[in-house]
């Protein structure tokens, strides 16, 4: 058995460092689950599967391209002598590559939220390939890999990618959204804005919290060297110098971002907007990601708070002045917040830390300019050949069906309800029936569907057709709010139930529906009974009541 003195210090340091890097790498990878939920919640229900697919393909396609091409391009731009040596470089090299890859894929997936609802899948995948191969690697080559931005003053400082990853991704998303143009019906002919709410605030908040959790890997994990070997002994490396400050400022920046966004939304609309609070948490994190290792705790509060507070202002400017449809607000969350954090770094740097306004401004300008030009060229070329955007028919139908042939929400009601479906045992009525064919049509609250299905089956009429509809009756209109903008909800979500009967009295069905759907509140719905001239069963050719 080895005693502590017999352990090779270098082997111990290497093993612990590799375990740490892999642990935080897996944590950063889990941020893709957060991005998937956040973006899926902010798009319409007909585009959810498309957004989820884009997130999975971002990783799957992008990470291979980054392995084969991108990491090497970054090294070339940075002046590396053996740019593709990592491919056959062994365990340590592969771990280092993977740590860089999760950062690259974070930048790539940000873009999908900006172009949601109208970009062709092939266009997005094409851009992801080029971003992973060239666009992002050029940015890291000019900075982290040793490029010329390190030589301007004390060099451009970005600890964990507030500008290099998030700022770049946000700027790319805004540029792509500008080239594609807004979604259908987003703007009226006079330029006024139509609000298109996302389908699930729950998904958006869940995704936000997952991202916040993963961000600890993003920021704290960048202090990658836990141990070093000094004079034959193990000592704490950069981890010991920065990890506590990084953990503190990350936490404070996140919290301040939420408060800043909530305060700005309250001042703007008189209400604390839930989505702005969620977006503010992320913007606060983006704002301190470039400087989290070397700012005071006061700086974390100020930068995080300002990053959150700028959200409503910047989003409104983009939406109403620039007329750019940034669906998931990726520029205010990632772009402008990343720029803000990089530029404010010198104001709040700890004493003795070398960072200057000249170096930070130069870095922001070069990264922003390169990203705009490269992204505009890619999406512009795709648009020129008609491959950037789906057709109006497909956009109105929804990208889930048009691009993937799936329906994200195909089910109605309670799947566990014990309701006999059409084609079960034949029901023979003994209480008589007029043999007249009638249709019972009901417009009801969606949440009562399970009870109504059961009640209809119990009176002997299990065969129904159910449709999701929107309608207006005696139920009053109400006001909704999405990202601080108020809109009127005067068409309420209902389910339409159609039940055709012959041997079962139509009034029995109507009464069963009423008893099971009644809540006593306006908006319970209405029931209509109407005659049916004829019925034909497709399989047997039976007609009249026998077909029913």
UniProtKB/TrEMBL annotation:
- Check the record and name the Gene3D superfamilies matching this protein: 3.30.70.120, Ammonium transporter AmtB like domains
Provide the membrane topology annotation. Answer: Multi-pass membrane protein
Domain spans labelled Ammonium transporter AmtB-like? 19-409
Q: Name one GO biological process term.
A: ammonium homeostasis
UniProt key word Cell cycle: no
The protein's UniProt keywords, in alphabetical order, are:
Ammonia transport, Cytoplasm, Membrane, Phosphoprotein, Transmembrane, Transmembrane helix, Transport
Segments crossing the lipid bilayer: 20-38, 59-81, 93-117, 124-147, 159-180, 201-218, 246-267, 274-290, 296-315, 327-349, 361-382
* Protein family (similarity comment): Belongs to the ammonia transporter channel (TC 1.A.11.2) family. Belongs to the P(II) protein family.
- Full protein name: Ammonium transporter
Taxonomic lineage = Archaea, Methanobacteriati, Methanobacteriota, Stenosarchaea group, Halobacteria
């Amino acid at each position: 058995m080895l005693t502590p003195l017999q352990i090779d210090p270098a082997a111990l340091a290497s093993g612990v460092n590799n375990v740490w890097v892999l642990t935080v790498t897996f944590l950063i990878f889990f941020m893709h689950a957060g991005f998937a939920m956040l973006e899926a919640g902010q798009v319409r229900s007909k585009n959810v599967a498309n957004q989820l697919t884009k997130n999975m393909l971002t990783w799957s396609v992008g990470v291979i391209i980054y392995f084969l091409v991108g990491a090497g391009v970054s090294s070339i731009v940075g002046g590396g002598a053996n740019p593709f040596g990592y491919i056959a470089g062994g365990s340590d090299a592969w771990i280092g590559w993977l740590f860089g890859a999760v950062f690259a894929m974070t930048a790539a997936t940000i873009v999908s939220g900006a172009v949601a609802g109208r970009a062709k899948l092939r266009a997005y995948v094409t851009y992801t390939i080029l971003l992973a191969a060239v666009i992002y690697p050029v940015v890291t080559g000019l900075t982290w890999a040793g490029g010329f931005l390190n030589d301007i003053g004390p060099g451009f400082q970005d600890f964990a990618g507030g500008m290099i990853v998030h700022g770049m991704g946000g700027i790319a998303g805004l540029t792509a959204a500008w080239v594609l143009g807004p979604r259908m019906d987003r703007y009226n002919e006079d330029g006024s804005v139509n609000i298109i709410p996302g389908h699930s605030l729950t998904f958006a908040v869940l995704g936000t919290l997952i991202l916040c959790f993963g961000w600890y890997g993003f920021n704290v994990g960048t202090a990658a060297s836990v141990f070093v070997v000094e004079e034959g002994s193990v000592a704490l490396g950069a981890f010991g110098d920065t990890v506590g400050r990084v953990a503190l400022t990350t936490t404070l920046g996140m919290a301040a971002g939420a408060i800043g966004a909530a305060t700005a939304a309250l001042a703007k609309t008189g209400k604390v907007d839930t989505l702005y609070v969620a977006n503010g948490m992320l913007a606060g994190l983006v704002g301190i990601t470039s400087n989290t290792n070397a700012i005071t705790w006061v700086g974390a509060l100020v930068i995080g708070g300002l990053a959150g507070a700028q959200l409503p202002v910047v989003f409104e400017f983009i939406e109403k002045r620039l007329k750019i449809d940034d669906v998931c607000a990726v520029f205010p969350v990632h772009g402008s917040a990343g720029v803000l954090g990089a530029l404010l770094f010198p104001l709040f740097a700890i004493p003795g830390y070398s960072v200057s306004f000249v170096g930070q401004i130069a870095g922001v300008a070069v990264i922003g300019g390169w990203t705009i030009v490269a992204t505009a060229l890619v999406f512009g070329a795709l648009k020129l050949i008609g491959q950037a955007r789906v057709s109006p028919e497909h956009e109105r139908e929804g990208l889930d069906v048009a691009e993937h042939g799936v329906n994200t929400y195909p089910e109605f009601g309670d799947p566990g309800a014990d309701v006999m479906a059409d084609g079960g045992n034949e029901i023979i009525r003994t209480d008589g029936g007029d043999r007249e064919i009638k249709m019972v049509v009901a417009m009801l609250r969606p949440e009562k569907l399970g009870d109504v299905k059961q009640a209809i089956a119990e009176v002997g009429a299990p065969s129904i057709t159910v449709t999701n509809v929107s309608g207006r009756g005696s139920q009053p209109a109400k006001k909704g709010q999405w990202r601080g903008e108020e809109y009127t909800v005067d068409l309420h979500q209902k389910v339409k139930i159609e039940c055709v009967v012959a041997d079962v009295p139509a009034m029995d069905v109507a009464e069963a529906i009423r008893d099971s759907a009644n809540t006593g509140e306006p908006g319970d719905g209405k029931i209509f009974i109407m005659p049916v001239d004829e019925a034909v069963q497709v399989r047997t050719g039976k007609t009249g009541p026998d077909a029913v």
